[in-house]
Amino acid sequence: MRVYLAGPEVFLPDALEIAAAKKRICAAHGLEGVFPFDTPPQAPPAERPYWMRIYLGNEAHIRSCGGLIANLTPFRGPSADAGTVFELGFMRALGRPVMGYSNAAAAFLDRSRDFLGAEARPREDGGWEDAEAMGLEDFGLADNLMIDGGIAAAGGAFERTEAAAGRRWHDLQAFERCCARLAALVGKAG
Questions:
Q1: Residues 29 and 179: beta-carbon distance below 8 Å
Q2: 70-88 in b/e burial notation, b at 16+ Cβ within 10 A?
Q3: pLDDT tens for residues 92-114?
Q4: What's domain 2-107+142-189's architecture?
């Protein structure tokens, strides 16, 4: 099965090395990893703006894959990368299996409170809110309930680990667990 490898690693200076490592792990589990930098199965029109060609290429990759594994490690804030979340939702809407992982083990509420600092304040009902009196989500989940819920509804798993300092984007233990679970899920369906 071809598996789309969604995540913000595309922004790393060593993105191609990370892609190669993920593809090796996929292959060890009988999967074929597809990274956003790979040549898309359908070339986007050259006259489109560069950013749109990236989008169309990634959409073509997603449509060509039977499943997706998303790196949902918090990116530039307490939550996952918005583009990665879009890709996960797109694959989920296609009715294909999705898995997610995060190299930050803390619950979404704890990360949100840490991110907001003094702007996070307790409510009288025992919950938490931000400076605009908007409640902070508190379900003990890894991220927003729509992310965790979409993965669970697809029969997938959201693997969490706490990466060692400086290894947040390079620790592939939780990713490998996702590969094993996806391979087992696909094996059951086949």
A1: yes
A2: bbbbbbeebbbbebbbebb
A3: 999 999 999 999 999 999 999 99
A4: 3-Layer(aba) Sandwich (3.40)
Residue 186 has pLDDT above 70, yes or no: yes
Helix (H, G, I), strand (E, B) or coil at 97: coil
CB 116 within 8 A of CB 145: no
SS3 content of the chain, % helix, strand, coil (to 5): 45, 15, 45
Does the predicted TM-score (pTM) go above 0.70? yes
Instruction: Name 57's Cβ contacts closer than 8 Å, sequence gap at least 6.
Output: 36, 40, 43, 44
What's the pLDDT tens digit per position in 42-88? 889 999 999 999 999 999 999 999 999 999 999 999 999 999 999 99
